Amino acid sequence: MKILFVNEIREADAYTILHEPIDSIDLMERASSAFVSWFKENYLVGNYKVKIFCGLGDNGGDGLAIARMLHPLGYDLEVFVVKFSKKISENFDQNLYRLEKQIPVKIIDNESFIVNFEKKDVIIDALLGSGLSRSLEGLLKSVVEKLNESEVPIISVDIPSGLFANKSNNLSDTIIKATHTVSFQIPKLAFMLPQNAEFVGDWHIVDIGLNEDFIEKVTAKFFYSTPLEVEKLIKPRKKFSHKGTFGHALLVSGSYGMMGAAILSARACMRSGVGKLTVHSIPSGLAIMQMLLPEAMYWETASGESDLFISTQYNIENIANKFQAVGIGPGLGVNIKIKESIEQLCELCAELSIPMVIDADALNNLSMDENRESLSKIPKNSILTPHPKEFQNLLNKSWKDDYEKLELLTQFAVNQGVIVCLKGANTAIALPDGTIHFNSSGNAGMAKAGSGDVLTGMILALLAQGYSPKEAAILGVYQHGLAGDKAAQNRGMNNMIASDIIENIRF
Ligand SMILES: NC(=O)C1=CN([C@@H]2O[C@H](COP(=O)(O)OP(=O)(O)OC[C@H]3O[C@@H](n4cnc5c(N)ncnc54)[C@H](O)[C@@H]3O)[C@@H](O)[C@H]2O)[C@H](O)CC1
Ligand SMILES: [K+]
Q1: Is the CATH number of domain 230-235+244-503 3.40.1190.20?
Q2: Known binding site for K(+): residues?
Q3: Which of 322, 323, 286 is nearest to 303 (CA)?
Q4: Ligand 1 centroid distance, CA of 57 (Å)
Q5: Architecture of domain 2-220
Q6: Distance (Å, rounded) from C-alpha 396 to C-alpha 242?
Q7: 370-429: per-residue pLDDT in tens?
């Protein structure tokens, strides 16, 4: 699903009005009715007193139309119009006329207004939508502050009032803190970013029938991967297949005291459809792996180098025609000799065109040099799975806000010619073509040690089965999140551990 910028949404709006054709006021009617469908399912009539706060533009117009539609359903309603300017939109004007035939509207035109909130209240925020042009001040700011202090649920229409849809707010800005945001057809970039979580709340998309041909033609930079889109990527297992059909994966992982990372990664790999898996790790890890995961084969590093992961055993003979994909990183440790092993494997994979997924300590090792020259060893189209700290390490710099983070992410993926899955809520998957795909699954219960190791194993399995790196990244991240969601359902977010994610992998 495409994430469009405000000007593109406006164009989609205008195109729909012209080509469907439909009057602008009727498109607003459709949008408001879509909001009402969501609202009446989630805030049952009789249980709530609804207070609707409307601005003077089309977002305010939506609020008035919503009030008119909720009234005959039996909702206890109070409608407030905040007169923050002299300018009103035509659709607002018309909807005010329509509503006032049914119920009276209260005007808020100065900062000394008082609204008393009760426990049963729910607020609908229709002050400002995508038309926001500057930070809130004066009357609007004071209304939003009072709504935020009310301690009752706030449902924002299209976007929380005061939040920019596709650029950063100032830290000091006053913005509605919504419980839910019900947005029209197209998700906004702001919803994807951690810095906006406290304003957006849970967000939902409702369809308002904007012209699909128009949306199809827009070249988007940002995408939101919906479950339906991602599930289409899954390749069915053919009847006449054998383990060779599904590839042989090589996982380079683990060190003394960190064999758990290798086991989690390896088990997740075997649970994600791969034909065969070989784990390459330290001699003292052999018994652990063979006992805990008898399905995997073990290739031990040469002994004698204490228990550090050091391998100088990579050559064409033992890699070419043997492995269809290589995963490297979880639990390796950081050390100059480990770095050399990683570089050697990267160079070999580049030469043999074996797809790679590179994670955790492999990334930390490759970030070791002051000038980051090791990064040039990473084969093109590799999948990198850093968490934010590891990504800062790769860049050797930080970012001032989430928008700058996305810019740096795009630049890195394009310049290095790699796929970067920047992990977090709505993991951002940056492709070498300059696009970013946000993931739609997962939960905060996954923010625990071992979750990342599981993801590496899953992506490795998909690469070995012949999924393209783009497919493996998008599908792997999604299925990882989905398994995490099922684990949270079964065990609870606080209580689930990375092994529970593995137990819930199913696709
Ligand atoms: N295609 C769609 O998705 C549809 C969207 N609808 C709704 O329309 C709004 C956008 O409406 P618009 O009139 O363009 O803007 P706003 O209502 O957000 O703002 C009105 C007006 O206010 C002024 N303004 C902006 N920022 C400030 C500020 N900080 N202080 C004071 N005044 C400000 C500015 O002049 C704005 O133009 C969209 O979100 C949807 O809710 C349609 O209903 C259906 C189609
Ligand atoms: K709003």
Answers
A1: yes
A2: 59, 125, 161
A3: 286
A4: 5
A5: 3-Layer(aba) Sandwich (3.40)
A6: 45
A7: 999 999 999 999 999 999 999 999 999 999 999 999 999 999 999 999 999 999 999 999
Distance CA 360, CA 253 (A): 10
- Going from the Cα of 65 to the center of ligand 1, the distance in angstroms, rounded, reads 15
Looking at the chain, the domain(s) classified CATH 3.40.50.10260 span 2-220
What token pair was written down for 127? 């002050």
Residue 184 Cβ inside 6 Å of ligand 1? The answer reads yes
Of 329, 402, 398, nearest to 364 by C-alpha is: 329
Question: H or E element: which one contains 347?
Answer: helix 336-352
In single-letter form, the type of residue at position 497 comes to I
Annotated binding residues, as ranges?
58-62, 125, 129-135, 158, 161, 261, 331, 387, 423-427, 452-453
Taking CA 36 as the corner, what is the angle to CA 33 and CA 39, rounded to the nearest 5 degrees? Answer: 160
pLDDT one-digit tens code per residue, 354-371:
999 999 999 999 999 999
Asked whether this complex has an ipTM greater than 0.95, the answer is yes
Q: Which residue blocks in 120-176 are alpha helix, DSSP H?
A: 138-149
Token output for 153: 């649920």
| Euclidean distance between CA atoms 275 and 318, whole angstroms | 18
